[in-house]
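Thread: "does anyone have the structure for this chain?"

Original post by V.I.:
We have the sequence but no experimental structure in hand. Need at least a predicted one for the grant figures.
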Amino acid sequence: MWSRKATALAGCGAFLALSGLVLLNYLFISVGIVMLSFLFLASFLNLWMPRVTIERTTSSDNIFEDGELEVSFTLRNRGLLGGFVEIYDEVPPQARLARGSNYTLLYLKGRQEVSFAYTVQVPLRGHYHLGPVRLRVKDAFDLFYNERHEPALEPFSVFPRIEGLESEILGGKNPKLYQGAMPIYSIGEGSQFYSLREFLPGDSMRKVNWKALARTGRMMVNETERENIIDIYMLLDARGVSGVGTPTNNPLEMCCRAAASFADQLLRSRNNIALTVYGSRTATVHLGRGETQLFRILTALADAKAEGELPLKLVIQDLLPYIPSGSPIILFSALDNDPSLAEAFTLALTRGYALTVVSPSSIDLEAATGRIPAGPETVARMERENMVTELRGWGVHIGNWKPGEPVNMALAGAQR
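Reply from O.Q.:
Generated one for you, tokens below.
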């Protein structure tokens, strides 16, 4: 392709040559022919332009909110001649450059290899990608260039920010959620004696209680208690109403950060965690433990979008048959515009589940943006306070979480 410089040179050469012919000015004719000849000869160099290959690498496939992702480029000129190389790598609109630049113009000699890097920072969770790459290779005289797009994309995920929690996570009634693993006891392999039962085919002879055999004349075996880890179920409200506020500060973002912090702390304590995200539909991460489970939960949180109007009652009705009795249920929701809340909480509490709610205040988020008048704001605050008081009277451990406060402040409210 012709550059503006080549177009201007061709235009000037043709104008001087034609003007010289009209005016019979041999100087104009000579200069115009020289310019056109130079442009003609330079066009042959276009056939031997630098043959550039691109290799892009990133420091990680996953980062946390406000984390930094370093992107490295390696350019190789496999041709014999040098030339100018102009490269531009598209970044997500939510990202901002922390160091370096995603645009570079440099001169690449024959058989030369050059590397450069830049760093982006993404303040909002989600799934993103880098690219495509726009590459423009120019000849040594900047007269002709070849332009191409590298369609290769580099995907990466931004996980919600994890905050450190205090030693005691939440107050519940059966059982309480503490920093350590939450054991439950059932009959199985263990060391603590539980009871005696009759011998059955397949029982090990080492379990036979010989004293009971001598006393009763029947073979009896010892039953022991097995310590197991309790299952914890987390629910995340991703309905459309949870997107009220700014893109980086709304109930959904606050709930995602709280859920990520809870999951990290509870999984570190060797508990089994499950997550259900509901909005326009439900997305479930089934029970599991360890770092792999944390990765699954963070991926599901990064994928959550504020959409839909699925009521909590339907979610609870679908999940309760699969939740063991006594398992804690942790709900992350602003509790807005859901007429089924009372029925959903009643359904869970009457079946003996320990229900905890971490609730960001959407009223404070709207007030910070100046979208709500003073009168309706006062009424809305009173209604929310009455609802929180009523739920606490039912036995729900609820934390009224305000924007700008750490997660531990919401936890302190949930323990009251």
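V.I.: this helps a lot. The chain is about 30% helix and 30% strand.
O.Q.: and Residues 374-394 form the longest helix (21 residues).
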